[in-house]
Amino acid sequence: MNAGARLHRIYDRLATQAKDQHMVQTWAEVFEVDLSHPHLEDEVASLVMALRAEIKFARERLDAYGVPANLTSPGFERLTQVASPGQLHSTWNGHRGNIQPPECRKIFEWAAWALREEEEADMSSEELRTLRSELDSLETSMREADMAPYLRDFIQRQIDTIRTALRMYGVQGVKPVEEALQRLLALIRPKRSLCPRPTRQPSQPRRACSNELRVLSIASQRSPTTLPKS
Asked: Model-level pTM?
């Protein structure tokens, strides 16, 4: 899926929302965030900001192909306007009329087609569920392990970083996942003789993520001196 296709998918999910409610709940349903999330507004706000960044990125990629700005208007502008933390307490009915016109949908369909040469490997819903399950298992193992508090905190921070990246995946694709794994490897690499890095292929994000989780799992079973304190 490319940036245009991701925007098209998000647009469709938003445009088909039937229930009038505050945008924080509307976006939560678009992004498939549990409405009972203890920090729902913060979670939605971060995803909305990621969406704004993805709209900007898609426009930049279209610029690189020499696509005039008027060809993504008014769709891109209208989605950017509603994708704002400042709009989270407004209601969906106040935005519906700007978002749902057929000409907006056509713009996102066209953007997906225009960026067709930039397709990237996708993770299926099953693969995402598997990765989240692996994170849960790693957290359970970490809680049961006898380790220094700073090591436990270090591993938990890396787990949280990967969880955030997986949440962003539906908005920004593999970029946040790859960045999270690169940060993780940069921290672990000085001790890679103790925590070997498995070979991975960049085109297979699910395998890459699983491999790095395995590195964290290995690290969690080593002595407290195998990982840095920060």
From this structure: 0.75
